[in-house]
Amino acid sequence: MKAPLIAIARHRLTVDGEGVTTLVAFHGCPLRCRYCLNRQCWEPEGISQWITPEELVDELMKDNLYFLATDGGVCFGGGEPLLYSDFIVQFCQLCPKEWHIYLESSLNVPSERLEAVIPYVHHYYIDVKDMNPDIYHRYTGGTPALVQQNLRLLADRHLQERITLRLPLIKDYNNDGDRQSSRHQLGVMGYTRFDLFEYVTL
Length: 202
Description:
By secondary structure, this protein is α/β, with parallel strands linked by helices. It has seven helices and eight strands. 40% of the residues are buried.
């Protein structure tokens, strides 16, 4: 089994989780967000390498001392990492159990892909965008139905304390009232950890 990556970014401090983390960014995404920072994940030439779970474990063993000393670990991002949930599961079964596993996802994937990784993920960073279907579609080109389904799945597993939800203020697409509405809907599901910020566009 091999998966395409756009990058491996090392020595990230408290950006993608606790301690020192290494970001493993996958190629491929179901969305086409207007202000996407990683457009290379859409394009064939954006692939930096193909790698197996075993090869990735070997590569990241270079960071083992940093992970162990800081309670850090590996963050899977992209692109959309849950397109490669089988790869992630195999990696987690091979890597040292002391490594914390973090996941950055839009959750816009079939639920079985999310369910596969739940036993291994220490903390989730979910890029919700906006809960309003019209705003979500205009900004991403997709529908939030799977996102909402997967958020309910995680809530039903009582995992809210292990999840940070990102709610951006998106110029020309939503406003603070929209964002507060999204936050309220998510709060009803029991979510309490929010990352509120504003997209900076050029």
